[in-house]
Amino acid sequence: MGILDIFKIKKSFPKVEKGNVKLVKDTIIYDDGRGNDPELLDLTVLKYVFVTMLGGQPYLMLFSNHQHHIACNLKGFQNVYKALSKRFGFNDSAFFEVINQTKDIKKRLWIHPEKTNFKLLDNEYSDFENGIEVLSDPPIFISWDITQFELIALQVGETYTSDTDIVYFKFSYPVRIGNMIIDNLECYVGNNRENIGVQNYFANLTDQSLTSKSYYDIKNNWLKRLDLKNNVDETGWERSDQNHIIIYLTKSKDIYFSLTYNFSDQSNYDSGSTSFYITNDRDYSTVLTDISNKIPITISHSFILQQQYSISENYKNNNYVSITPQVVMSQLNNKSIIWYDANTKLLGFSDNNLSLIYPINDLDKVIIYNVLPARGAGYSELRIRLKNGDLHFVFSTNTTYEFDEIANLINQWTDLETEISGPWYND
């Protein structure tokens, strides 16, 4: 666009149609006029702002803790936009250029200035195969196998809960991984099995330029340190919409990290940061025990399924998964079984290897989902909803109505509420 074209851009706002948006100090309050509850946006943690045209409708997309799409035709939008633009210094020319045309495009109006929050050292380190070093005083080296409770007990950071009830641990000190120092490393806690190594660490890494330079600098550093060829096609891709690569830190490939940088396109927004995500994929199955070694189990009721189904839940993030008790194994005959112990009030779902075993007091209801074949295949799923709201997938099959009888039996055994949902067509 030439400089003369800037003066030709219409600077009119869309006609007000429905909904409402207002600015109250550091909070934007908005509703879409469709009867939904108002949304709140905290401006003190605002990261970046885009204007986007979606299906002929212009939106202001603001990212704070998550994406907020505010329609530009809400009542009060013009006043809110002008106040935000004055406060943050939006690119008004880009805003009016996008909203006064019809193509589905997006442009960034503002991004929060950031300092470079990682450092690449010249020193050579090989201890990344064993873990990470917290640069406290004195420094503390942490094994990849440290549990979430052991990590918290070190008092090198603090936990916090997001607005979606996910519990995180944020390090209070920089952390060194090989020759890379990260200022803002975090990890998930509370959603993993208690006696295994922390499963994931993560950070958003930025160069002060707020470009993909962070991605390339980190990638090239590790390719050089690990003496790897720059062949991203083997473990990732570099495209116009996204760069992504996986780099293995151990010879067994059970500890690795990914780097992801999104460019603005139809689906993504360029945030100016590289997502850094460590995965611990080690086998911790030795922590699984036979619950009957501690609690004597007597099978009061049981139902053997006509074929073998595998427990769907991953033991790494589900504490209810255990080895199938021997007393249950004796009845399996290479199939799967649902059983109830009236003495201990334990409800179990077992295959030849693993079981999901629940105290009845922890459960809210059993849910059966039935889906009829249409464009997609038909299937049935057996799920358990806990009183804390968690939903566990127990068994699934490609046959509709397969688990209906089970729901009725469980209700007879335990008085637990059961729900048979559907059927729906798999469109």
With helices defined by DSSP (H or I, 4 residues minimum), what is the helix count?
8
Beta-strand content estimate: 35-45%
How would you classify the quaternary structure?
A: single chain
Secondary-structure content class = alpha+beta
The largest sheet is: 8 strands, antiparallel
Number of extended strands: 29
Gross geometry = globular
Low-pLDDT regions? 1-7
Distance between the termini: 45 Å
Q: Calculate Rg over CA atoms.
A: 27 Å
- Spatial strand sequence of the major β-sheet: 11-12-15-16-20-19-18-17
Mean pLDDT: 92
Helix percent reads 10-25%
Can you characterise this structure?
- It is a single chain.
- The chain is α+β, with helices and mostly antiparallel strands and about 425 residues long.
- It contains eight helices and 29 strands.
- An eight-stranded antiparallel sheet has the order 11-12-15-16-20-19-18-17. It has a five-stranded antiparallel sheet with strand order 8-14-13-9-10, with no helix packed on it. It has a five-stranded antiparallel sheet with strand order 21-23-24-25-22, sandwiched between helices.
- Mean pLDDT is about 90; it is low at about 1-5.
